[in-house]
Design a protein that fits this description.
90 residues, Translation Initiation Factor IF3, homodimer, elongated
Chain lengths: 90, 90
């Protein structure tokens, strides 16, 4: 979870990820990328919106990308959607 | 659900929405906007990815926007995240 300037959103409460983002900006990051897969994508949007509106009003969405990753499980391969949101300071 | 060039993604199976998008392009739309709120945002990304990879290989994501809407319910107001994905033909 400590890759530079990247926050991976999973199943924890939204505020955990918001705090991770705010911490990275406070440590000098110019941009932070919020990444999520599958159902966590909705939460990644929540995290981004809460960060912008409640904690870092000068933060803005610089880029959003969506994609597909192949996952290999016991039952064979499946596809899972991915999203990356790049947050920067205005 | 029949607004021009807009597909609202909710709780139905992904393929329902994929077919709605493909139909709109077949009817002459140059762009189709996929909209979702809350937990359906993850599904909207799935819908977009399945459309691009399996049904309309010439379709591309032109723009993605995220935002917040205020919802008023019996227990007061809450915020809900929103997403819009604009799909166009290359």
């Amino acid at each position: 979870m400590d890759e530079d300037n990247v926050v991976y959103v999973g199943n924890k409460p939204v505020m955990n990820y918001v705090l991770a983002i705010v911490t990275q900006f406070n440590n000098g990051a110019k941009e932070v990328t919020v990444k999520a897969r599958g159902r966590a994508i909705s939460r990644a949007v929540d995290v981004t919106e809460v960060t912008k509106h409640r904690f870092l009003k000068e933060a803005a969405v610089k880029d959003i990308k969506i994609g597909t990753e192949k996952m290999v499980s016991e039952r064979g391969g499946t596809n899972i959607s991915t999203m990356e949101i790049v947050l920067g300071l205005d």
